[in-house]
Amino acid sequence: MDLIQRIEDKDIVVGVIGLGYVGLPLVREFCKQKFRVVGFDIDQVKVDALNSGQSYIQHIPADLIARLVEEGRFRATSEFGELGEVDAIIICVPTPLTPTREPDLTAVLSTMRAVAANLRPGHLVILESTTYPGTTDEECRPILEAGGLTCGRDFYLAFSPEREDPGNPVYSAGKIPKVVGGCDPDSTRAAVALYRQIVVDVVEVSSSQTAEACKILENIYRAVNIALVNELKVLFDRMGIDVWEVIEAASTKPFGFQPFYPGPGLGGHCIPIDPFYLAWKARQYSHPTRFIELAGEINTSMPEYVVARLAEALNRQRKPINGSNVCILGMAYKPDVGDIRESPAIQLANLLDRAGAVVAYNDPYIPEMKTRHSDLNLQSTDLTDEFLARQDCLLIATNHTCYDYDRLVRLSKLVIDTRNATRDVKDGREKIVKA
Questions:
Q1: CATH number at residue 375
Q2: Contacts of 148 (CB under 8 A, 6+ apart)
Q3: Which of 64, 92, 149, 310 has a beta carbon 3.0–4.6 Å from 18's, enabling a disulfide?
Q4: First CA to last CA across the chain, in angstroms?
């Protein structure tokens, strides 16, 4: 296949659609291996920032972007008509849920239509956006073939699930094995050849459906196990047992146990969303997905549980939530990143606001809270001594490592800890309530 030889010779231009937490690391890896890359995004602000050498993702340094642009290895554009100028197209666009918790493939399908309008013989198209099994072959392939070209003969189509873990210093995009499945054998071979240029290992599977199911399994595994420890957290609290101590003790077993940790809910672009893609698809086969539904029910109930624990703690101090000053510590969905997608801290802020609390937050990675999931218009507040003295409660929603928890506990009247962030704090433990 001529395309494979050109890939191995690095004589192709790679196009990456969606320049967020998945797409931009891919740009970095391809450029690192001396490929020329064109990035596509509908957000002109992102496009302009990248072309001027700026980065909006913490673990992608601005000086790297500036150097790649200056060397001519990378440029960004919002003009999708330029897709005809690239040889391989990798799609990394969002796949959220609708308000009724059904798959929302709007971004994927609109992107495929843009690709179809510029599709030419020899193109390799790869979808990385997490979705239900069958999407690539049943939804995307007909759009691309509508213009008369045939998959496997005129162009190639495959699925390779993103496995990005923002902020992980050990496993960057190039160090994570890539699962690849095509809609036909030639598509698989072409996609495997491309990813072999940038990742430590490529795992070839028999079909795009298998690759799609692989990513769904990975996220369901985590969602179900997190739901288990969240349920045990509630039970053990009633029994007067510290679930964190239990998990730490159980983790000493050298086989048959893997630790998962409770929290105030699930966040990020994968675990809170992806299991429901399979649950929706399963209904087409009249097959119930009871583990998925139950895990979702437990995990989505955690913000309410945390607020109830906060209310109990304030009540013991003869204070209602209504009118109390509550500062949420950490708005990101995980430590040390600036990613707010599906963060449980948003739901916590909404619940507290509806209960009448005066809500504030601090997050060094998120200067202002802008999200479609909340009407609150908040900005991060500095944790000065005076500010902390005015707060009736400090709610730890995200355990950023930059926080001085000893100081925060010392200066706070009440601390609700959902992440076991205060485990090493010695003084003032009577102020701490785990939730």
A1: 3.40.50.720
A2: none
A3: 92
A4: 58
**What residues act catalytically?**
270
* Domain's final residue, options 208, 231, 252: 208
> Quick one: residue 248, left, alpha or beta (phi over 0 = left, psi -120 to 50 = alpha)?
alpha
114 residue type, one letter: A
How wide is the angle at C-alpha 47 spanned by C-alphas 44 and 52, nearest 5°?
Answer: 125
Q: How far apart are CA 237 and CA 215, in angstroms?
A: 33
Burial of 235 (0-12, 13-18, 19+ CB in 10 A): exposed
Residue-by-residue pLDDT tens, the chain, 435 positions: 799 999 999 999 999 999 999 999 999 999 999 999 999 999 999 999 999 999 998 889 999 999 999 999 999 999 999 999 999 999 999 999 888 888 999 999 999 999 999 999 999 999 999 999 999 999 999 999 999 999 999 999 999 999 988 777 788 888 999 999 999 999 999 999 999 999 999 999 999 999 999 999 999 999 999 999 999 999 999 999 999 999 999 999 999 999 999 999 988 777 888 888 888 888 889 999 999 999 999 999 999 999 999 999 999 999 999 999 999 999 999 999 988 888 999 999 999 999 999 999 999 999 998 776 677 889 999 999 999 999 999 999 999 999 999 999 999 999 999 999 999 999 999 999 999
Of 257, 272, 299, which marks where a domain is finished? 299
Are 168 and 241 members of one domain? no
Distance between CA 364 and CA 338 in Å, rounded?
A: 8
- Beta-ladder partners of 91: 17, 127
251: domain CATH number is: 1.10.1040.10
Same domain? 151 vs 16: yes
Distance CA 343, CA 398 (A): 9
In this structure, which amino acid lies at residue 63? Answer: D
Query: What's the rounded Cα separation, in Å, for the pair 318 and 146?
Result: 67
Boundaries of domain holding 11: 2-208
**148 and 41 share a domain?**
yes
Clarify whether residues 292 and 311 are in a common domain: no
Q: What is the tally of structural domains in the chain?
A: 3
Residue 175 in tokens = 């160090």
